[in-house]
Each structure stands twice: as structure tokens, then as C-alpha cells.
Specification:
mainly alpha; single chain; 159 residues
Length: 159
């Protein structure tokens, strides 16, 4: 699942941050900002067990989220502040233990989309499938025709 994928790769960053303050070493760098934005949505959904299992990443994330305001990014790039419980549990959870548990309320986005489509009596197009136009012809064919016309025009110019 996507959750397991994120945890697996976040644990790699967690291990890298065990011996250093920032992703680039001792100084804040562009990678810190890029990764902060990339993991923000995941951290917004994490419970305290996830945050403690990734304690080095959590330390780094919390430090970046409080430092980023010093750089005053545009409003469109600002992220909300994620809450952290600073009282550690007696036994820290492991990343492996988090991968083994499935949240009760989690439903894959694809299933949610198909449920909406089924309720409306239609089935959504498969990912990557061309959408059909009003007259039943596929847009893909229209696009190919347009590319063919451009190719013919280019050949005429070359002559």
C-alpha cells in the first residue's frame, strides 16, 4: 500500500538523520525544504506512534516547520503546523510494527472513486484510458489526426 511505501522510504531518511541535523549535514539546504513539503501530508495523517517510530525524522520535521516561517514563503507554499506529543511512550513503536497495522477507517482512493461512480450508475474510465467524446469517438484518435496534420505541414515546409 501507499502507506507502507511511505513508511519504508521515510525510515531511510530517519536513519540518515540519526547522525546529522539536516539532510545535507550541518546546514539547512534546499533538500530540507523539498523533503519537508513532500512529507508534510503524510505527517498530517500520522498518529503519535508513527511520529515516535520515525523519531529522527520527526525531530527534523518539527525543527523545519518552525524554521520555515523565518524564510516567509508565499502563502501558496505555506503548510499547516503539525502537532507533536513531546512526552515519549515508555516503549517506542518500530516502523515494522506500523507497517503491520492497517488503520480502520482507511479506504483506498480508487475504491472511493469507483463507489461514487457506481452510485451515479457510471463506471469511471481506467487510468490512462482515453476519454470518449460526445459522438462516441475517442479523443485519442482526434489527437492522432492532429499530429498527422502537423506532420504533413512540416513535410510541406521542408519541400
Amino acid at each position: 500500500t501507499l502507506r507502507v511505501h511511505f513508511l519504508k522510504h521515510m525510515s531511510v531518511i530517519n536513519a540518515a538523520l540519526e547522525t546529522q541535523m539536516y539532510l545535507g549535514g550541518t546546514q539547512l539546504c534546499v533538500a530540507d525544504f523539498a523533503c519537508y513539503v513532500a512529507v508534510h501530508a503524510a505527517y498530517a495523517g500520522f498518529n503519535d506512534d508513527h511520529k515516535w517510530a520515525l523519531c529522527n525524522l520527526s525531530r527534523w520535521f518539527d525543527m523545519i516547520q518552525h524554521s520555515i516561517s523565518d524564510f516567509t514563503p508565499p502563502d501558496a507554499l505555506r503548510c499547516s503546523t503539525i502537532e507533536f506529543a513531546y512526552d515519549a511512550p515508555d516503549v517506542l513503536p518500530t516502523v515494522d510494527s506500523l507497517m503491520a497495522t492497517q488503520p480502520a477507517a482507511a479506504q483506498p482512493p480508487a475504491a472511493a472513486g469507483s463507489a461514487k461512480a457506481d452510485a451515479a450508475g457510471t463506471k469511471p474510465a481506467a487510468a490512462g484510458a482515453p476519454a470518449e467524446s460526445k459522438d462516441g469517438e475517442k479523443k485519442e484518435n482526434a489527437e492522432k489526426g492532429g499530429k498527422k496534420e502537423k506532420k504533413e505541414k512540416k513535410e510541406k515546409k521542408e519541400k
